[in-house]
Design goal:
Length: 117
């Protein structure tokens, strides 16, 4: 299961969006607390996916993917909070949440498939 695939590209593209969101929230919305949280967990998804490429075993691979999944879940929480406190417009929130939800679906599938193999 190691290698490259959609999760690697999608998690990196998502991290780039999160970095740009962080810059937007700091500069245009003067929001410093939640933006830092979403930056940390949103970029951690791709970092853990990348670490999984170098996993020492299937158990290590699975562990990295579970961490990525947990970070994606936390990211979804912070995005919800940013939307519900009106730091993000409904359109902004919907778009980035769709990407986050896609990562959650892919990571859930990877962890289930790996666990059952």
């Amino acid at each position: 299961m190691k290698g490259t695939g959609p999760i690697y590209d999608k998690s990196k593209a998502f991290a780039i969006r999160i970095v740009n969101l962080y810059k937007y929230l700091k500069t245009n919305r003067s929001e410093y607390v939640m933006s830092k949280q979403v930056l940390r967990c949103g970029t951690s998804i791709g970092a853990n996916v990348r670490e999984s490429v170098y996993a020492q075993s299937q158990a290590d691979f699975l562990s990295k993917m579970y961490i990525a999944l947990k970070e994606a879940g936390e990211t979804a929480y912070w995005l919800e909070l940013l939307a519900e406190t009106e730091y993000l417009t409904p359109t902004q929130a919907k778009r980035i949440r769709a990407d986050c939800d896609e990562l959650i679906r892919i990571l859930s599938s990877i962890t289930k498939t790996t666990k059952n193999s």
